[in-house]
Write a sequence for this structure.
């Protein structure tokens, strides 16, 4: 039993060996042992890391180690910038010493605030590690399993290298050396001397020493090297294993949005391809082993690999099979994927009703993606009766979790007054929330609001700023809008060449307005060499997508025989298409 689990005690040697240091507090105690250790009076203890029951009784057991491990995870996600509970302590009224505050704070059920960048699996693990009932806290074996699952999702190529390592066995939780790694180091680093009986702790020495913590901490931390190096994953059963995971976690599924002004729907996500073909093959084998043993997370991940054809032959049928196994075990994100498969009709007959069923299951469990999807189905009357009220209800649940797609849809609901009182100001608020998260569609919408002064003072400068952010991420609508700003010289130097550049980017993505604009630039010879043939080419691409202005322009090209053989019949056809959409004054060639 270590009794001093903290990031500061994880040391990195020059050969990249990670070790958990011991400054004299550790005691031998098996993890499956129900016994406990009672410390001596006056022993200096790291009270910010110990469990609430230890604060009261002075008793240490393996379950109190689990609690401390959770605090370490918290440190990793905050980069140990502040001491645990320092923010909570500083924000309260200063009527008492830190020990009294901490004991009352924890006994009242309060816990450290979990940072937003913590993966959902790890958030759940932290909540369990900090349960008041020690018997309900997950063991280190359970922690190891959860961490490996997160690694499989976030850093699969690193996890595979674990097998080749010659470092410490993953069967042991910690590696200790029987010597003090720094005998000259003060053992009062972030510790408080605690006197206790088996019933209660005394706080007198705590109050005296707490004032010196920060000063001592600064003096000592120069001597102790803490690292979050690559070898952490090789010691996954050790405390240090999480160091790498938590700082290098990346999201496996990147959600893409396909939308227009009136609708948005979540497109299929893709698996991050940061591994070689051989590594992916090995990863798929590891997933399969766990999946066949019934591990829901592995089943879901294997389904992702089949869906994307990474490490296995692409197969929607196999993807569906493994998604279903995980979904039947109640894994929310697998249920959401089941909804996607039915919505797009992948390996199953397309069914909005089935999609709604699975989105609903996942949404009820709190999955933000599913809540957004479920709301979208109500918004568009797909598989359910159209209901703005239900759509808003589920969008609100998703935005409460910071879902950018739902934030955009909330903006749309306010912009068009669907289910809420129309309000450009509210629409702007929600578009900005999505934009501030880096969502390209939200940035484009925010730029549009600034360009036209909807809910905010008109500002071409702000419009260009947000259009550019979205355009740089590849948003075709924003690219076309940015081209328009260059063409007109709005808050940027007028430049037909820049306009053509951005129109082309949008046009090559298949964006109809960008195609029409690029065709116009070719027709007029603005920023490019004049070419009726190129103009007709881009007008046609846009017209075939239903762009009324492009249909009109294409009709005129046929009427005049520019870039195409003259044809009144073709001209009339395209004029008619445009007229049917109510956008064209020309009803027939004149």
């Amino acid at each position: 039993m270590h009794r001093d689990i903290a990031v500061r005690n994880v040391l990195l040697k020059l050969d990249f060996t990670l070790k958990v240091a011991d400054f004299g507090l550790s005691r031998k105690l098996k993890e499956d042992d129900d016994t406990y250790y009672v410390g001596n009076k006056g022993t200096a203890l790291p009270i910010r890391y110990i469990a609430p029951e230890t604060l009261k009784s002075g008793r240490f057991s393996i379950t109190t180690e689990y609690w401390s491990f959770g605090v370490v995870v918290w440190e990793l996600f905050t980069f140990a910038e502040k001491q645990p509970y320092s923010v909570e302590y500083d924000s309260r009224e200063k009527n008492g010493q830190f020990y009294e505050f901490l004991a009352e704070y924890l006994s009242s059920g309060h816990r450290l605030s979990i940072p937003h960048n913590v993966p959902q699996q790890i958030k759940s693990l932290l909540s369990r590690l900090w349960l008041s009932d020690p018997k309900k806290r997950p063991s280190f074996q359970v922690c190891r399993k959860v961490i490996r699952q997160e690694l499989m999702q976030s850093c699969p190529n690193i996890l595979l290298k674990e097998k080749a390592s010659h470092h410490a066995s993953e069967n042991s939780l910690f590696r200790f050396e029987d010597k003090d790694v720094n005998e000259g180091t003060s053992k009062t680093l972030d510790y408080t001397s605690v006197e206790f009986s088996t019933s209660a702790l005394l706080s007198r020495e705590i109050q005296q020493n707490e004032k010196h913590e920060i000063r001592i901490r600064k003096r000592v931390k120069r001597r102790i090297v803490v690292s979050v190096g690559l070898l952490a994953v090789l010691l996954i059963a050790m405390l240090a294993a999480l160091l790498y995971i938590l700082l290098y976690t990346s999201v496996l599924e990147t959600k893409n949005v396909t939308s227009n002004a009136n609708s948005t729907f979540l497109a299929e996500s893709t698996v991050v391809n940061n591994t070689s073909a051989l590594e992916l093959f090995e990863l798929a084998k590891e997933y399969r082993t766990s999946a066949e043993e019934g591990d829901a997370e592995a089943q879901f991940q294997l389904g992702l690999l089949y869906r994307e054809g990474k490490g296995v032959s692409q197969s929607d049928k196999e993807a569906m099979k493994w998604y279903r196994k995980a979904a039947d075990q109640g894994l929310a994100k697998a249920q959401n994927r089941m909804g996607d498969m039915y919505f797009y009709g992948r390996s199953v007959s397309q069914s909005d009703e089935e999609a709604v069923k699975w989105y609903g299951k996942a949404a009820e469990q709190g999955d933000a993606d599913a809540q957004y999807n479920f709301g979208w189905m109500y918004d568009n009357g797909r598989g359910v009766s159209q209901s703005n009220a239900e759509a808003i209800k589920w969008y609100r649940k998703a935005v409460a979790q910071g879902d950018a797609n739902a934030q955009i849809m909330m903006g749309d609901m306010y912009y068009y007054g669907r289910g809420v009182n129309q309000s450009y100001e509210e629409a702007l608020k929600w578009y900005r929330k999505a934009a501030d998260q880096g969502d390209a569609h939200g940035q484009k919408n925010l730029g549009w609001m600034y360009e036209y002064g909807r809910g905010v003072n008109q500002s071409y400068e702000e419009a260009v700023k947000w259009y550019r952010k979205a355009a740089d991420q590849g948003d075709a609508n924003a690219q076309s809008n940015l081209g328009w700003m260059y063409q007109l010289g709005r808050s940027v130097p007028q430049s037909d060449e820049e306009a053509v550049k951005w129109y082309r980017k949008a046009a090559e993505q298949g964006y109809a307005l960008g195609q029409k604009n690029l065709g116009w630039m070719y027709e007029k010879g603005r920023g490019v060499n004049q070419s009726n043939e190129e103009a007709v080419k881009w007008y046609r691409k846009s017209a075939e997508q239903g762009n009324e202005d492009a249909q009109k322009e294409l009709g005129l090209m046929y009427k005049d025989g520019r870039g195409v053989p003259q044809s009144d019949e073709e001209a009339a056809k395209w004029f008619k298409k445009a007229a049917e959409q109510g956008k064209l004054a020309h009803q027939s060639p004149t």
